[in-house]
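pipeline/complex-builder :: batch 7 item 3
reading input block
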Amino acid sequence: MQKQKFIAVIGSGQANASEIKLAEAVGKEIARQKAVLVCGGLGGVMEAACRGAESGGGTTIGILPGDNREAANPHIKIPIVTGLNHARNVIVVKSAQAVIAIGGSYGTLSEIGHALQNNIPVIGLKTWSLVREGKTDSGIISVDDPVNAVDIALNMIEDQPSRR
Amino acid sequence: MQKQKFIAVIGSGQANASEIKLAEAVGKEIARQKAVLVCGGLGGVMEAACRGAESGGGTTIGILPGDNREAANPHIKIPIVTGLNHARNVIVVKSAQAVIAIGGSYGTLSEIGHALQNNIPVIGLKTWSLVREGKTDSGIISVDDPVNAVDIALNMIEDQPSRR
Amino acid sequence: MQKQKFIAVIGSGQANASEIKLAEAVGKEIARQKAVLVCGGLGGVMEAACRGAESGGGTTIGILPGDNREAANPHIKIPIVTGLNHARNVIVVKSAQAVIAIGGSYGTLSEIGHALQNNIPVIGLKTWSLVREGKTDSGIISVDDPVNAVDIALNMIEDQPSRR
Amino acid sequence: MQKQKFIAVIGSGQANASEIKLAEAVGKEIARQKAVLVCGGLGGVMEAACRGAESGGGTTIGILPGDNREAANPHIKIPIVTGLNHARNVIVVKSAQAVIAIGGSYGTLSEIGHALQNNIPVIGLKTWSLVREGKTDSGIISVDDPVNAVDIALNMIEDQPSRR
């Protein structure tokens, strides 16, 4: 079975209007490109991205922190119940071949760290910038346009056979 | 979105011919009944169940212990990459609303314990029997027929609104 | 630094008087033998074992399921905060070189499965018996006396250089 | 039993000479102040901090990513074996009441994110700076002196009764 490409969308459960709009557009484009959306399964950025993906007929996976599948947002097709609380962040990024970060809570920051530690590319929309010893770290690929973010994610997966 | 019923199939990665046959029949019936199969994503009982489900057009989720989605058996449609090693067993059972155990390794035993601890029903085919202070524990519902196992699992999910 | 031997004591958070008595004696003997006690950090069997170990001047480690170190029983010297819920059971047994199981909840059963899966010896006091295809499984070494349980655990650690 | 204060020291397993020196001084001061050092148990910054703490007679806890306690650096007194790989980062920070970050790998970044998400203070020595929408985030308290870092950590624990 040819496996589909998996893209994680990460961001806060409490998102502002601009982040919600970006997330929905990202989710819609992921579905249009026939990729699978992975996220933390809850509200805010996660829910908006899933709503976009669902509107495009895409598959949505929610890696839930608690013990109850009912906590998933209504657009999650595949709820995964971990009971691991914050440690589930690691699974969100490891299950994806590229990560799109939208906005910037501290939970999102932990996911960016886990992704980069595992050599999984991170594309950022209005998210964190990282500075190390006075120099901007090049780990996060910063873009402005949601469709562009998905294009870059898919191209980076293509270019790295080990991640396909 | 009306969520489908999720059934976990648990069993050893090194299974004998009789267990393989049972697992394949269980997987096939899960797909025929339009439920989703969750498993640990590797070989043996897991792979046989997924092969059965795939032949019936079903959805198969593999909760992988390692860091590499390529370790999934070829019939897994949705690989979830945890990197958690044995702790991923907890996620396999929590993501399901009923569990079917086939054969009996110690890993399977840990999953039976986690399922019963979380009040998730366990149906057993040629698996462990549990004895506590000289009395057989009634936690595992032992059956002989794979189609019957799936029927019982689905009925138990139906009967318990909190698990639907 | 010569590391001490670590023994896990596992059992229900709701224990009866007989289990409490056994657990306290096991904890006391672990301390007398200069080994370290690892447990899940909560009440019942865990608390009784820690009380025994503390009375003997021993070190007690509690691998807690929640996010709050205050949930540890009052005899825990080293609280480890996991936030992993039931998945913390895996860490309790992996951190030990031998496991003593007292009484029999389903959580204890999951820990027995994880220990045997990882080739960590399990000594049982009034705990589960395991039967596979009509035959009693020899995985759990069943004993009646708490001091004897600790002796066997320490001898098994000695005999297996890879576990020291 | 009055519990001791737990401070996590986080940083790369491959550290440079300046980071090693800072880590050793931090570990020594943690021990001098009778606090307990928690870390990821491996080399680099972790090992240097443990060496400092051991020289001061302190207690050192290593939350190990793999399945083998022998992977702990030689200055770890309490090895905790998780088998969780990168997800063990969450346990390192949750088990502490304050975190001192030295240097800056991506794994360290993930731990900073998890700590701040859980409202655990982070004191930084030559580590990441965080910028969100063009503004520096105040989450990391940046200092230059290792003794000062430990003082701030202990004072912040004192000031927040819920963390003691």
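note: Residues 17-32 of chain A form the longest helix (16 residues).
queue -> next item
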